[in-house]
Amino acid sequence: MPKLNELQVGQPVPGRAYTPTNVSLFLYNAAIWNPHRIHYDEAYTTGVEQHPGVVIDGPLQGDWLAQVVTNWLGEDGALIEFEYSNRKASYLGQTLVSGGEIESVDPASGRVQLKLFVTDEAGDVTSPGSAVVRLD
Amino acid sequence: MTLLTPEIKSWIGQSEPPTTVEVSRRDIIKYAIATEQVRQAYLDGDEAPPMFAFGLFRPLVPLDALGPDGLAPMGPMPDLPLKRIMAGGTRMTIHRPICPGQTLVGTRSFADIFEKEGKQGHLIFLVNELRVTTEAGEPVMEEMQTRIAR
């Protein structure tokens, strides 16, 4: 559990690696009811939409960013603001790594701002984001 | 060069009628498994992960209403000169957690459209606003979702 008086700007917030598979992408898109063919139909995705492979959903990477926050927070705080941008596409077969760091701490309000990122194997940030949490 | 005609821009501000959904524990658990959550409250479906709402209000339309790319029209949307759609990101404010048994009301509107020149050519950014409340009208979340057409 993060303690407000122990937090320091620049302190890393742990993330983790994800390697989506055909099965996990199928289940994710089924769970959100997303029939977009770029997430399961390889011939269509490479032929018609001219991607190099099946596309890893941008909002799935958004969820991984949210997990950085909620796993760090545990039960003792709330995520109140959250944003991300999908800047670089990622494709099935890639391993992506989430992470974050503390950007600012306001002891008076208990508000902490986090910088978030998903990076690919080339080291590029595919989805930068940020969050504001309130620690109880 | 602009691809955004006055007719396309005239869609800004249009809203869909509100959609009412019942939040099911089973749907939360499916989402939690597929997104590889580790928090037990999510895996047990006691509470939904913050991004669960992204799927909750996606349109349910008959198969013959899906486009050639598989997508259903999401919210009010003009016909665009660029057809290949990708996710662009989101910005959300969260007021209370989503839990099983809740009945939620979502309203989607076409908030903005603008264009940029990207590395791979012209891009159109579509911004949808999604406002979610409880049945009683208490705020649950507001979200600005961006999609990119290229």
Keywords for this entry:
heterodimer; A: 136 residues; alpha+beta; Thiol Ester Dehydrase, Chain A; six-stranded antiparallel beta sheet; 3 helices; 6 strands; 32% strand; B: 150 residues; 4 helices; 15% helix; globular
Q: Could you characterize what this model shows?
A:
The complex is a heterodimer of chains A (136) and B (150). Chain A has 3 helices and 6 strands; from the N terminus they run ββαααββββ. With 136 residues, chain A is α+β, with helices and mostly antiparallel strands. Chain A has a domain of 89 residues: Hotdog Thioesterase (Thiol Ester Dehydrase, Chain A, Roll). In chain A, a hairpin with a 5-residue loop joins strand 5 and strand 6. Chain A is elongated. Chain A starts with 11 loop residues before the first strand and ends with a strand. The model of chain A has no long low-confidence stretch (mean pLDDT 96). Chain B has 150 residues and is α+β, with helices and mostly antiparallel strands. Chain B has one domain: Thiol Ester Dehydrase, Chain A, CATH 3.10.129.10. In chain B, 15% of the residues lie in helices and 37% in strands. Chain B has a 5-stranded antiparallel sheet with strand order 1-3-4-5-2, with no helix packed on it. The two termini of chain B are 15 Å apart. The interface between A and B is large, with 44 and 38 residues.
Brief summary:
The complex is a heterodimer of chains A (136) and B (150). By secondary structure, chain A is of the alpha+beta class.
SSE blueprint:
The complex is a heterodimer of chains A (136) and B (150).
Chain A: E1 12-13, E2 17-18, H1 22-31, H2 42-47, H3 58-73, E3 77-85, E4 96-106, E5 111-119, E6 125-135
Antiparallel strand pairs in A: 1-4, 2-4, 3-6, 4-5, 5-6
Chain B: H1 6-9, E1 19-22, H2 25-34, H3 40-43, H4 53-56, E2 85-94, E3 103-118, E4 121-134, E5 139-149
Antiparallel strand pairs in B: 1-3, 2-5, 3-4, 4-5
